[in-house]
């Protein structure tokens, strides 16, 4: 029997009741829930790009179909048009990757990130980097590069990051997978979070000095999270 079935969920906890039920399965005995929030990574957070991801994406049916017709189109450019024309108008022809993993898209996101206020600070091994990697490589996901959804369970002891595969899971109960855990006292709200008119952004600051930008469903949920953290 799961833990949330053996103990009633608190009526004062923040969050949709189905989201609370999903997160409640991961409460320790006697651990009170402060709230559960549906979040996602900042829209310009780095993509998870590695050889395995590219290989898996390239073998997906949609990618195979795309690559087939792209090969025909590439043949047209290569064999029927002058080489100088291809080099001038399609210089990145052989650098493209399926599912948004192209070098051009990655470069565009990297150029926008500083103007956006940044999305992630901290090298490999930092708390922010491990948080970002845990979400991007959610178990069971096929397109790991762009995955950005997750659920946060907040208690008076820890912050637990849980998997969330689709946006519809905000309104239904499902089996979440623990991704990353932060004990109390190892993270705070970043005081100088940049203002974002397009998203309800709040950055988390970690004990090692790294930080990561997160996006809430709306401003009300962000304010509720800020109030819950302040009242711990």
Short recap of the structure:
The chain has 232 residues and is an alpha+beta fold. It has two domains: 3-47 and 115-230, Pleckstrin-homology domain (PH domain)/Phosphotyrosine-binding domain (PTB) (PH-domain like, Roll); 61-97.
- The strand count comes to 8
Structural class: alpha+beta
Major β-sheet, in short? 8 strands, antiparallel
- Classify the helix fraction into a percent range: 25-40%
> Count of helices?
8
CATH topology of the largest domain: PH-domain like
Distance between the termini: 29 Å
CATH H-level superfamily title of the largest domain: Pleckstrin-homology domain (PH domain)/Phosphotyrosine-binding domain (PTB)
**Uncertain segments of ≥5 residues (pLDDT<50)?**
1-6, 94-99
Give Rg in angstroms: 21 Å
Task: Please identify the top-level CATH class of the largest domain.
Answer: Mainly Beta
Q: What is the overall pLDDT average?
A: 80
Oligomer: single chain
Question: Total domains, how many?
Answer: 2
At CATH level 2, the architecture of the largest domain is: Roll
* Order of helical and strand elements: HHEHHHHEHEEEEEEH
Q: How large a portion of the residues is in β-strands, by DSSP E? A: 15-25%
Which outline best applies?
elongated
């Amino acid at each position: 029997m799961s833990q949330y079935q053996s103990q009633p969920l608190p009526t004062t906890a923040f969050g949709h009741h189905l989201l609370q039920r999903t997160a409640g399965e991961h409460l320790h005995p006697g651990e009170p829930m402060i709230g559960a929030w549906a979040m996602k990574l900042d829209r310009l957070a780095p993509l998870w790009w590695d050889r395995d991801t590219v290989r898996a994406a390239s073998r997906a049916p949609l990618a195979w179909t795309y690559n087939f017709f792209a090969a025909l189109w590439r043949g047209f450019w290569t064999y029927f048009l002058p080489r100088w024309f291809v080099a001038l108008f399609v210089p990145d022809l052989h650098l493209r990757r399926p599912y948004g993993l192209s070098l051009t898209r990655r470069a565009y996101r990297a150029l926008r990130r500083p103007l956006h206020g940044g999305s992630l600070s901290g090298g490999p091994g930092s708390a922010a980097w491990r948080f970002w990697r845990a979400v991007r490589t959610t178990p069971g996901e096929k397109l790991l590069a762009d995955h950005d959804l997750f659920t946060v369970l907040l208690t008076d002891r820890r912050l637990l990051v849980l998997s969330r595969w689709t946006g519809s899971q905000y309104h239904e109960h499902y089996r979440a997978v623990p991704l990353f855990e932060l004990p109390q006292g190892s993270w705070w709200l970043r005081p100088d979070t940049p203002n974002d008119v397009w998203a309800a952004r709040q950055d988390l600051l970690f004990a090692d000095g790294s930080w990561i930008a997160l996006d809430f469903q709306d401003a009300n949920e962000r304010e509720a999270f800020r109030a819950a953290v302040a009242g711990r």
